[in-house]
Design goal:
Layout: E1 20-27, E2 32-43, H1 54-58, E3 68-80, E4 86-105, E5 113-132, E6 138-153, E7 173-184, E8 188-200, E9 218-227, E10 232-239, E11 247-249, E12 267-268, E13 273-280
Antiparallel strand pairs: 1-2, 2-3, 3-4, 4-5, 5-6, 6-7, 7-8, 8-9, 9-10, 10-13, 11-12
Length: about 280
């Protein structure tokens, strides 16, 4: 198609890394437990791409990437009240990557991507989730996360230094919440559900042609009835309650032919949808 000569060659590669995990827990009370852990993992060497040139064959690693390694350090706690009506988990983590595998575009065909290694990268963050049974009929849950990513050494090609930029494919801040309420009736239960999810884009990604994937809040809800015998249930639901029209699929590393392509066209949040779901349960 492009007037390129086919290359036929055979190479083999063997990796013998060791993965390990160390950790410990300490129970401070019947309600509170703390923990700390460290782990080492790897991703095996991978073929760079279907588009292989003579330079790839002549390179010391051939047409394979180097293996990717990550060491993860984490500490946190788990708390739960004696009546189990309230639960809170929180953790902080730090991830140290070496030779992280990243897709980038290459001249002259920018729409073709090649897998390469970024020498070093760092990820750190915190996350927490809670669940509160406020009453017999009301339950509330929430999740909060903060994430920071950074390529500390990344020169994909001469003259192009991406060190200091973020990954661009992970939210910097994310938050979600859910509320469930059920109201007992004489012959069954009326149930209502509401969930909210939002995430905020990082501001240090080198390729910022389009808005970040999913950098907006989405609300979904449903309400329904289930009889006391539990043989059936009916729900009326709505998704994307506020009818947001925001991008949910964006280009990542290696996008070419303009800002709208990364082998797929940019997709947007589906419009508001309504529906009715009827369930029937067989057996005891």
């Amino acid at each position: 198609m492009f007037g390129l000569n086919a290359l036929r060659t055979t190479q083999s590669l063997r990796d013998d890394p060791v993965s390990w995990t160390l950790g410990g827990r300490y129970k401070l009370s019947n309600s509170l437990t703390t923990y700390i852990s460290a782990a080492r993992a790897f991703r095996s060497a991978t073929v760079k791409d279907n588009f292989i040139g003579q330079a790839d064959l002549d390179a010391p690693s051939g047409f394979f990437t180097e293996p990717e390694f990550v060491t993860n350090y984490e500490t946190g706690f788990k708390f739960q009240t004696s009546d189990r009506h309230f639960r809170l988990n929180a953790s902080a983590f730090y991830m140290d990557y070496t030779d992280i595998q990243v897709y980038i575009s290459q001249e002259p065909f920018l729409f073709l991507r090649t897998l390469t290694n970024a020498a070093k990268a760092r990820v750190w963050g915190v996350e927490a989730d809670m669940n509160w049974r406020a009453s017999k009929n009301l339950n509330v849950g929430a999740n909060l996360g903060y994430l920071k990513t950074r390529y500390t050494e990344f020169i994909p090609e001469p003259g192009r230094d991406l060190s200091g930029t973020g990954f661009g494919t992970a939210p910097e801040l994310s938050f979600s919440a859910v509320v469930d309420y059920q109201h007992p009736l004489e012959n069954g239960t009326w149930q209502t559900h509401l969930d909210y999810a939002n995430q905020i884009a990082p501001d240090d990604f080198e390729l910022r042609t389009l808005g970040f994937v999913g950098s907006h809040a989405v609300v979904n809800a449903w309400t329904g009835y289930r009889p006391s015998n539990g043989t059936w249930a009916a729900r009326l639901w709505v998704k994307n309650l506020f009818d947001l029209n925001k991008p949910v699929t964006n280009f990542h590393w290696g996008a070419g032919l303009g800002p709208l392509l990364d082998n797929v066209t940019v997709q947007y949040e589906k419009p508001r949808r309504y529906g009715i779901t009827l369930d029937y349960y067989f057996g005891p």
